[in-house]
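Our preliminary data section would be incomplete without showing what the modeling component actually yields. Below, a chain of 138 amino acids is followed by its predicted structure, encoded as tokens that our downstream tools consume directly.
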Amino acid sequence: MLAKDIMSKKPEFLPPTTSLKQAADQMRTHDYGFLPIGENDRLIGAVTDRDIIIRGIANGKDPSNTPLRDVMTKGIHYCYETDSLEKLVQQMEKLQIRRLVVLNKDKRMTGIITLGDIAVKAENAKLCRELADSVAHH
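Predicted structure:
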């Protein structure tokens, strides 16, 4: 099984100028905990619901006037559509992460893989349990 078989497809970028409030509204509407941030058709970072709370609101930033650029994570971890499930699991375990952005051969974002995607779509239950146990302590 490959990344392209497991990933959630058609993620959309938010511009880095999007306010924390707008991003939080989108997360609530779509039940997302992670949003990719892009500029000029390139992935430049990502923001999680935790980033908005910890780096934004808890630091006294105004959610209506603070852009995502101020709280986003740069240097996003990614995999390729053709990477195997085993490779994804090893990468997520090693990095202690719950999500990977999926890129095509042209390095364009085509999807996102989460622990939930792996748990639902992967056929190897043992591999899923190992990954979940590994990142649960992070």
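The radius of gyration is 15 Å. The mean pLDDT is 88. Preliminary results of this kind motivate Aim 1 of the renewal.
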